[in-house]
Specification:
By secondary structure, the protein is an all-alpha fold. Among the domains are: 18-100, no CATH class; 102-322, no CATH class. It has 24 helices and no strands. The chain has helices spanning 3-35, 42-60, 65-80, 93-96, 102-119, 122-132, 138-152, 158-176, 180-196, 205-216, 223-249, 260-263, 272-290, 292-295, 299-302, 304-312, 318-322, 326-345, 347-352, 362-379, 382-396, 401-412, 423-429, 440-461. α6 packs antiparallel against α7. The longest helix is centred in the first third of the chain and has 33 residues, at 3-35. The radius of gyration is 23 Å and the shape is globular. It is a multi-pass membrane protein.
Length: 466
């Protein structure tokens, strides 16, 4: 593609984004005008507009998701605290202080650990180790790839995990071509990275955002508590997904050649000393996260360990800092600010109150929210889906805030039925070894069974099922 064609393509994208942005603005103003009531305060009107505007921007992607988060922070600061625009201005500290939330620091600690593992190539060393011990049976290789991806995605972003593993196995995929085995491997890696993200708070931005929203309501979810809810569901769904892929795509047990692993040598720049530092920091950090209820050191405070040690020892430098996914932090912080605004203005309580008299079992409501979360997350980011549905579900189901929030967040990670559903899906689809239809059967089955299993497990662990 030459420069002129690139310029034309960029102009079309810009024009499309501007049209979508204006459309979102008009839609949000119209919905606010239709739904506002005479007794609404200025803050409630502003919050109502922001709710529709943020949702429509997230759905249309007129601007990047992180930019929506920044817009939320700026908008709340300008409208809620401005005496010229608000007849009852209020302190805006709680809306801009979301950057100091323990959730942000927990995510940041996870980003540092993931970046350090990638830089020192510990992730590649782990992958080669497990593949060397998996044998040459394609079924065993798929199982090992999927569960390695699942575990890695609990500490690293699903996007980084998928990219790392796809690059590592690309020589094997090139020899296999567009075969059933190559399709199973690519789909397995992408789906396991999404499902594995259910296992920890730092596994997905949606998880972290949910914990932050619950914290605003006075409900604390520890690192270990989340794992009790999310990890068993992640393991079961990954195993189910693996079984389905084996049944559908892997029709032979002919051994595969793993000679490409011997050709992938470590970089000369690797430092065994730095690798040992990263391993030590990783083990200490995770151990302290898991035992925070025993020693009373908060997870946010524990996150300082990788931040300080990895920079002090020069494992991570200023150049590495620039490459961290700061956009995710902006998205989460903005989402938490929107949640705080909806809570303080009680705008959702006002509209949800009319549904209180609907005679439906509350657990059925939770399942409906989980299924809707799966659908939304398949069309937009799971963090945006969670931000929309969690406050609404918590408002509607008072007394079951924790159960509905966790169900929605876990269900969002099961949206894997389209190539665009997740970045991991897009990465494997870009190899041109997959067709769009390859995602459908397994993706739809997991998309239906995943939310159901998540809801049942959350209710069972929470003692609500019986």
């Amino acid at each position: 593609m030459n420069k002129a064609e690139k310029d034309t393509k960029e102009k079309k994208k810009s024009r499309k984004s501007i049209i979508y942005f204006i459309g979102c603005l008009v839609f949000s103003l119209g919905m606010t005008w239709l739904l506002r009531e005479p007794n609404f305060t200025d803050s409630q009107v502003y919050a109502l507009f922001l709710l529709f505007f943020a949702i429509s921007l997230w759905i249309t992607e007129a601007i990047p998701p992180f930019a929506v988060g920044l817009f939320i922070l700026a908008y709340l600061t300008y409208t809620f605290g401005n005496p010229h625009l608000n007849s009852n201005p209020e302190p805006i500290d709680k809306y801009v202080n979301t950057f100091s939330s323990r959730v942000i620091w927990l995510l940041l600690g996870g980003f540092f650990l993931g970046a350090a593992m990638s830089k020192t190539r510990l992730d590649m060393k782990l992958l080669r180790f497990v593949l060397h011990h998996s044998g040459t049976n394609p079924r065993n290789i798929l199982i090992v790839l999927m569960f390695t991806t699942m575990v890695a995605s609990m500490l690293m972003s699903g996007t980084a995990t998928t990219a790392m593993i796809v690059v590592a196995i690309m020589p094997l995929l090139n020899t296999l071509g567009k075969s059933g085995i190559s399709k199973a491997m690519l789909l397995g890696v992408a789906m396991a990275s999404s499902l594995g993200g259910m296992g920890t708070i730092i596994g997905s931005p949606a998880n972290a955002m949910t914990v932050g929203i619950l914290e605003n309501e006075g409900v604390r979810v520890s690192f270990l508590s989340w794992m009790i809810y999310g990890l068993p569901v992640a393991i079961v769904l990954t195993a189910l997904c693996c079984w389905l892929l084996l049944k559908i795509f892997v029709k032979t047990n002919d051994p595969l050649s793993l000679a490409f692993l011997d050709n992938d040598k470590d970089n000369e720049e690797e430092s065994p000393f730095q690798q040992r530092i990263v391993i030590g920091v990783l083990l200490v950090t995770i151990l302290l996260w898991l035992t925070s209820s025993w020693h009373d050191i908060t997870v946010a405070a524990v996150s300082a360990i990788p931040l300080v040690v990895l920079t002090l020892t020069r494992v991570l430098t200023s150049a590495d800092m620039k490459a961290l996914p700061w956009d995710t932090l902006f998205l989460v912080a903005g989402g938490l600010s929107l949640g705080a605004a909806l809570q303080s203005t009680e705008i959702l309580h006002h509209y949800v109150h009319q549904f209180k008299d609907i005679d439906i079992n509350p657990y059925v409501f939770i399942l409906i929210f989980a299924l809707v979360s799966n659908i939304f997350a398949g069309l937009m980011s799971n963090a945006a889906s969670t931000m929309i549905l969690v406050p609404l579900g918590m408002t509607l189901l008072a007394g079951l805030e924790k159960e509905v929030a966790l169900s929605i967040a876990l269900a969002a990670s099961t949206a894997i039925f389209l190539p665009i559903s997740t970045t991991a899906n897009a990465i494997v689809y870009s190899t041109e070894l997959l067709d769009q239809k390859d995602f459908r059967l397994v993706g739809l089955l997991i998309g239906v069974l995943g939310p159901v299993l998540a809801v049942l497990w959350v209710l069972l662990v929470g003692g609500k099922l019986f």
